[in-house]
Amino acid sequence: MHKKALDLSIEDRVFTIKEGRDYFEPDRPAIRGPASIRRTTFGDLDLNDPIFDSLKEEYEFIEWAKSKSERPAWVNYTEDGQLGAVLILKPEEVENIGTTPSLGREKRLKISTLKVSEAQWGSKLGELLISIAIREAIGYEVEQVYLTHFIQEDEDYLVRLIENYGFEHASNRKDGEAIFVKRLTPPPDTSLEPSQIARRYYPSFCDGENIGKYLIPIQPQYHNKLFTGYSKRQPGLNEFAGRFNSEGNAIHKAYLSHSNIRKISPGDLLLFYRSKDYREVTSIGVCENVLFRTANQDEIQKFVGKRSVFSEQEIENMAKSPTTVIRFSWHFDLKNPVSYECLLENNVLSGPLQTIQSISEEDYKYIKQEGGIDERFALD
């Protein structure tokens, strides 16, 4: 029935089960992020803000914007009240996009506008906005996200950013503007390695029996910086003034430890356990690369870049002992964090988690079920 509706261009008159649920229960689960970014609508934004100046040079932006006032928008404001970043979305679009080649009519989420002001460069806000767009697509149960962009002849930051998260140049419009499309899950016949799937089809990840699973302890002060969407996290005052810590915005993050472990490999799953206060498994990520037990401060700093919660001084102090550095991509915060008491009762842990610990497939499946990890994105 729904395929016929698409063919007849009357899909707006036919509800899927999900659309019917949304119609009668319109409230969608909130997407959490730093206090310095919030969800609003396009119509609530000041179109005279300098962040829109370049768009006004390219086309009739003001008229277009006024006709799209109902679209959802995510925004950051700097301390002087100007927009530091803006993400404008068109959810659940069903259009035949592209001419060379035609990509056909499918339900997609379109990123209409993604802009970060010069004042916020270096804050990893671009990564945060990409992550939010993907979470919005998940909420709308849309399989594809896309945007259009005129590719720059010089180094094109936007292209480099979105290609890191699986956007591919799939087609062009009549005027030559490129269309970049991202799928949230891989096709059934994919033969990519787990680490490649985690990148290309982010936030999907592989969790079959051949994938290693590890519990990773992290202290509250560092957990607050890395996982800004954690529901029990208390934002700092600087966030309400529009400021960020870049490692919290980043999808790609880094974890440092004095653990003796030497088994973690790219593609393995990392289950982060907040120690000391709430004592629960909160988040899941995928290992990208590991630097095992080095005391070379410069090597560590180069390996982590701006993705670690540690300052240069803290890294210098850590490097006095052999340090293991794990670069990873954050995929989800658990819907239902799994407490220390539950981990003890179900023999996942035998006592307080002090260091990185490998867990069995059975223990992982318990955390996966209790934590509410979305099965659509966990590929066995």
UniProtKB/TrEMBL annotation:
User: What superkingdom does the record give?
Assistant: Archaea
Q: Which GO molecular function terms does the record list?
A: acyltransferase activity, transferring groups other than amino-acyl groups
Q: Give the N-acetyltransferase domain ranges.
A: 35-187
Identify the InterPro entries for this entry: Acyl_CoA_acyltransferase (IPR016181), GNAT_dom (IPR000182), PUA-like_sf (IPR015947)
Q: Which SUPFAM superfamilies does this chain map to?
A: Acyl-CoA N-acyltransferases (Nat), PUA domain-like
Q: PROSITE patterns given for it?
A: GNAT
Q: What name does this protein carry? A: N-acetyltransferase domain-containing protein
Specify the species. Haloferax denitrificans ATCC 35960
